[in-house]
Amino acid sequence: MRKDNLRGSQMKIAKTTPDALKILWKEKVFLKPKDFRAIEADLEKRGYNFTDKNLMMALKGAKFLTRKGEKGDYLYVQKHPYIEGDQNGD
To answer: How far, CA to CA in Å, does 52 sit from each of 56, 58, 71?
Structure first.
């Protein structure tokens, strides 16, 4: 991830779907359970437009998230709070 200046503030830019999810995690988006479409909307607000397949695979592989519910109706919530320097979410 790199940092760019936008109107005097720093914003992290993710080039991959897993990196974008880590940014959301750092911003405490996953404190409460969110469904796929809500996560997609959070990413779109930040200018990210990943394919559904890429987003689903990244959510499934995110070690810092847990998935609740049944197939087709999953909710994603963090397993633990973001810790500065925790790059993998272990």
So the answer is: 6, 10, 15
CB 44 within 8 A of CB 37: no
Q: Which CATH number fits the domain that encloses residue 63?
A: 1.10.10
- Give backbone dihedrals phi and psi of 24, rounded to 5 degrees, phi first: -60, -40
pTM score, two decimals?
A: 0.82
Other C-beta atoms closer than 10 Å to the C-beta of 21 total 27
What residue numbers bound the domain in which 51 lies?
A: 29-84
Burial zone of 25 (CB within 10 Å; 0-12 exposed, 13-18 middle, 19+ buried): buried
Longest Cα–Cα distance of the chain, Å, equals 43
- pLDDT tens-digit readout, 41-87: 999 999 999 999 999 999 999 999 999 999 989 999 999 999 887 66
